[in-house]
């Protein structure tokens, strides 16, 4: 029998959300309050299984009395708080943040971003034509200034990293949300194979000295890929199928089962296309995995289709 | 945690310096990186690997930290390198032609040619400046200021000849009535006896008699505000920390003075280092801290030497350590931490991450430092100049202190005059002195020139016009006039100054110094620089009006949605140039 800790009853906090009084449990975030009252706030660096990184600034809302906008994903509600999610200031911030991201990053595989952009009228192209891809991003020195003339908009476009049979790292799509680093580090996996390196616009996700993944501390659990919001990290199989045009998410079925490798009992969700497993994930609300798996559960399923 | 290390060993020299950290923890990462850099001049894979082994840090994380700081290089670099300042005050004083000469004679800036471009070195009164560094068994550093191409070329080849620069000097040295600068340039900064003979440690004695709450009351009633730029009431900060039941409490003295055009804290530390140590001790006593960290920017070798001397002499005479000055139960000690070339580490929460051995990225607030600061404990963070006001308050009394300055801005203030000004340097004046009076004190613009503009408060501050010189320099008047005193920068531009290039340097500075954590600042500072280049170079995307609009919109999102003060203020000076100096019309014409 699973014992679920229900804890002490929580007090309710009343606040004003876009002019309406709402009550949410003490300790909830503004984002929780929005979700509870049916408002959808776009988020990128927020992860339901991770601590807020506060980095992407897509979810900023206006709180009365605060000089700056505040990140709804991490700011806890307070009694009497007056929050606006749809003010002109919030809309402008969201539009600019999405434009800035879109102008520097390939968001073509980021779910929902097109809807958000058209909803607020974002146009990333207005910062000018994109600079060509750069192969030297791993070697850039902090504080060393690149001479520019403003004729092109700097981007993080760069060659895709394929150095192992399981993962593809396409950092031209990376928005620096910190989720992969947090999942790899002390929040879940404790492998610490990757970190944020460099500084400013040259900041990047990297192993030590940008060494290839097989030489790093990576254990191929795939938990970084699970939390990546943009498709910068992907499973090689999915990546290859997308490349050759055979990835068809519409036709895929998802079946949740239990991993047979050991006694932990992780939930697996098998993504099946044309009677073939193409990807394995785990439900984020599973009390066993919280969405995480190990290399065996994540990748060790070829024998199933050995017909 | 099992560490997976690279299969690369350090050299013998690297191993020896890293082994000294055996048994220590993560918070020694920055000192260990410095030790390797001081010894060999760069951080090799073997050295980083060995640091990770000794301090038990995952290599990817240590790499992330090492690659955050501009003074460290993760690719091979010769032992000798000269950092040539190209920032605001140096730019006004010929840094560009200096760099052009260096490019001609030594080759383009870079590790191979032995010289690098550097952000503000904090010696703006002696611009243009350069800092020569040579790694070795004893690392050597030499400040060249003011310098010229010939000297830089000679020192780049021969290496620095001595550790120190010249003695701290202020134009007002010896003038009666000075409080903060009274010893600077007058008293031997290495002598504790001289310090005591000029009233040193009388304030700590008073503090021990008053007790912690008495000290906090005096500082609160004196209405002392932070001098680092944000002007937060110091007494409130101390009180909020002192009340936290969690122990230990920490004190951090923010000496990471990196705002371009700011050099007041350097002069205080070089000219009156014991005052900094005594002030920290009083603050530690008041806020219940047992340990203080003095976070000193990496580019201040002379201040480092003098502060180390001051701390060791203070320890010898029981002004630091256990039961200080015979006061049972009051123990306090100070550790110096050297920054390594990152403006952002002067942000009050980034400084914690840097000390703890993580990347110097600001934290999201709340929680505030007084609740959860360094190592997650209640922490007071104060700027050097703020702290040095405390002995003045305790010796003169808070009532006398409030009679200096104005109702809303009490005490005196240090201003850093640089740029096109006859007698650059740090000046101490009471709050309420007008900008014009301050400029007169420094001799105004050089003869035959006209004042064009004054950058007030630093790169994160704003411009004022020549017709605004009657502005009283107080927090309230600056606010009412839509500008800020910031960290006390008064950078003067005359009619020979190239405003466009000056603005481009400000934009480049913020781009280079953004930590990269949040989108508005990481990408916004880049878009700001690009748009400004088009505007200044008159190469618009379609029209200059459109580029102006882009600048304003990017500026607005940086100000409203960035995590910390760097991004929030990265647009201030450029906005004020467009609107207050009328550069918008000039650029659009």
From TrEMBL, chain A:
InterPro entries: 2Fe-2S_ferredoxin-like_sf, 2Fe-2S_ferredoxin-type, 4Fe4S_Fe-S-bd, 4Fe4S_Fe_S_CS, Mopterin_OxRdtase_4Fe-4S_dom, MopterinOxRdtase_cofactor_BS, NADH_UbQ_OxRdtase_ferredoxin, PSI_iron-sulfur_center. Pfam families: Fer2_4, Fer4_Nqo3, Molybdop_Fe4S4. SMART domains: Molybdop_Fe4S4 (SM00926). Residues 135-145 have a biased composition (Basic and acidic residues). Residues 164-184, 210-238 form the 4Fe-4S ferredoxin-type domain. Keywords: 4Fe-4S, Iron, Iron-sulfur, Metal-binding. It comes from the Bacteria. Residues 252-307 form the 4Fe-4S Mo/W bis-MGD-type domain. Residues 11-89 form the 2Fe-2S ferredoxin-type domain. The keyword Iron applies. Residues 123-150 are annotated as: Disordered. PROSITE patterns: 2FE2S_FER_2 (PS51085), 4FE4S_FER_1 (PS00198), 4FE4S_FER_2 (PS51379), 4FE4S_MOW_BIS_MGD (PS51669), MOLYBDOPTERIN_PROK_1 (PS00551). PANTHER family: HYDROGENASE SUBUNIT, PHOTOSYSTEM I IRON-SULFUR CENTER-RELATED. This is 2Fe-2S iron-sulfur cluster binding domain-containing protein. It comes from Lentzea indica.
Automatic annotation (TrEMBL), chain B:
Keywords: 4Fe-4S, Iron, Iron-sulfur, Metal-binding. The keyword Metal-binding applies. The keyword Lipid biosynthesis does not apply. It comes from the Bacteria. InterPro entries: NADH-UbQ_OxRdtase_51kDa_CS (IPR001949), Nuo51_FMN-bd (IPR011538), Nuo51_FMN-bd_sf (IPR037225), NuoE_N (IPR041921), Nuop51_4Fe4S-bd (IPR019575), Nuop51_4Fe4S-bd_sf (IPR037207), Soluble_ligand-bd (IPR019554), Thioredoxin-like_sf (IPR036249). It holds the Pfam family 2Fe-2S_thioredx. Residues 500-548 form the NADH-ubiquinone oxidoreductase 51kDa subunit iron-sulphur binding domain. Belongs to the complex I 51 kDa subunit family. This is NADH-quinone oxidoreductase subunit E. It comes from Lentzea indica.
């Amino acid at each position: 029998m699973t014992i679920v800790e229900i804890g002490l009853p929580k007090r309710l906090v009343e606040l004003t959300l876009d002019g309406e009084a709402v009550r949410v449990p003490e300790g909830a975030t503004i984002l929780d309050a929005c979700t509870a009252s049916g408002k959808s706030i776009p988020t990128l660096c927020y992860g339901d299984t991770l601590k807020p990184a506060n980095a992407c600034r897509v979810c900023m809302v206006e709180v009365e009395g605060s000089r700056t906008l505040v990140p709804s994903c991490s700011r806890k509600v307070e009694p009497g708080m007056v929050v606006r999610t749809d003010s002109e200031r919030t809309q402008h911030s969201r539009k600019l943040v999405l434009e800035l991201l879109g102008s520097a990053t390939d968001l073509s595989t980021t779910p929902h971003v097109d809807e958000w952009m058209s909803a607020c009228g974002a146009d990333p192209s207005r910062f000018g034509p994109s600079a060509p891809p750069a192969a030297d991003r791993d070697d850039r020195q902090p504080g060393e200034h690149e001479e520019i003339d403003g004729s092109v908009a700097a981007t993080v476009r760069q060659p895709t990293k394929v150095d192992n049979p399981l993962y593809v790292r396409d950092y031209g799509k990376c928005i620096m949300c910190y989720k992969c680093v947090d999942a790899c580090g002390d929040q879940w996996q404790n492998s610490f194979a990757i970190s944020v390196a460099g500084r400013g616009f040259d900041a990047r996700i990297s192993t030590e000295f940008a060494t290839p993944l097989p030489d790093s501390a990576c254990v191929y659990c795939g938990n970084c890929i699970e939390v990546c919001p943009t498709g910068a990290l992907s499973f090689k199989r999915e990546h290859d199928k997308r490349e050759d045009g055979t990835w068809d998410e519409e036709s895929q079925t998802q079946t949740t089962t239990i991993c047979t490798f050991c006694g932990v009992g992780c939930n697996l969700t098998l993504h099946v296309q044309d009677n073939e497993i193409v990807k394995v994930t785990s439900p984020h609300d599973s009390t066993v995995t919280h969405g995480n798996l190990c290399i065996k559960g994540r990748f060790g399923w070829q024998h199933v289709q050995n017909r | 945690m099992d560490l997976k290390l690279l299969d690369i060993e350090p050299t013998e020299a690297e191993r020896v310096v890293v082994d000294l950290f055996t048994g220590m923890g993560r918070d020694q990462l920055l000192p260990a990186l410095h030790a390797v850099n001081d010894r060999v001049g760069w951080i090799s894979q073997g050295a980083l690997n060995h640091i990770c082994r000794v301090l038990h840090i995952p290599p990817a994380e240590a790499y992330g930290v090492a690659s955050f700081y501009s003074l460290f290089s993760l690719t091979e670099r010769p032992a000798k390198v000269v950092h040539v300042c190209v920032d605001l005050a140096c730019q006004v004083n010929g840094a560009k032609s200096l760099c052009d000469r260096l490019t001609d004679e030594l080759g383009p800036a870079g590790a191979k040619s032995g010289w690098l471009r550097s952000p503000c070195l904090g010696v703006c009164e002696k611009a243009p400046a350069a800092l020569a560094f040579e790694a070795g068994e004893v690392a050597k550093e030499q400040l060249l200021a003011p310098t010229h191409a010939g000297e830089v070329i000679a020192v780049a080849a021969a290496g620095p000849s001595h550790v120190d620069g010249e003695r701290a000097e202020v134009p007002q040295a010896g003038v009666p009535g000075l409080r903060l600068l009274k010893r600077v340039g007058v008293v031997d900064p290495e002598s504790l006896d001289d310090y005591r003979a000029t009233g040193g440690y009388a304030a700590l004695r008073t503090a021990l008699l008053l007790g912690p709450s008495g000290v906090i009351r005096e500082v609160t009633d004196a209405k002392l505000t932070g001098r680092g730029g944000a002007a937060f009431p110091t007494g409130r900060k101390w009180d909020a920390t002192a009340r936290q039941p969690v122990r230990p409490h920490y004190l951090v003295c923010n000496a990471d003075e990196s705002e371009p055009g700011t050099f007041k804290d350097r002069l205080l530390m070089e000219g009156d280092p014991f005052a900094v140590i005594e002030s920290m001790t009083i603050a530690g006593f008041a806020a219940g801290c047992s340990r203080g960290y003095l976070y000193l920017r990496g580019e201040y070798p002379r201040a480092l030497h003098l502060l180390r001397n001051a701390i060791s002499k203070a320890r010898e005479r029981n002004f630091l350590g256990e039961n200080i000055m015979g006061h049972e139960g009051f123990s306090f000690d100070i550790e110096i931490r050297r920054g390594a070339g990152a403006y952002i580490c002067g942000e009050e929460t980034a400084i914690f991450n840097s000390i703890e051995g993580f990347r110097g990225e600001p934290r999201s607030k709340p929680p505030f430092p007084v609740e959860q600061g360094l190592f997650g404990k209640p922490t007071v963070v104060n700027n050097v100049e703020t702290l040095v006001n405390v002995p003045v308050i305790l010796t003169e009394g808070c009532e006398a202190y409030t009679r200096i300055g104005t109702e809303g801005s009490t005490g005196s203030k240090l201003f850093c005059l640089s740029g096109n000004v006859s007698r650059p340097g740090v000046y101490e004046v009471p709050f309420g002195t007008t900008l014009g009076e301050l400029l007169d004190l420094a001799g105004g613009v050089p003869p035959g020139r006209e004042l064009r503009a004054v950058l007030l408060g630093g790169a994160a501050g704003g411009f004022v016009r020549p017709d605004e010189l009657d502005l009283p320099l107080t927090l309230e008047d600056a606010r009412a006039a839509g500008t800020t005193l910031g960290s006390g920068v008064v950078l003067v531009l005359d009619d020979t100054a190239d405003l466009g290039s000056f603005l481009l340097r400000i934009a480049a500075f913020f781009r280079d110094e953004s930590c990269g954590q949040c989108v508005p600042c990481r990408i916004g500072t880049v878009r700001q620089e690009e748009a400004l280049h088009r505007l200044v170079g008159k190469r618009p995307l379609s029209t200059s009006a459109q580029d102006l609009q882009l600048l304003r919109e990017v500026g607005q999102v940086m100000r409203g949605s960035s995590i910390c003060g760097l991004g929030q203020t990265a647009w201030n000076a450029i906005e004020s140039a467009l609107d207050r100096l009328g550069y918008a019309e000039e650029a659009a014409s």
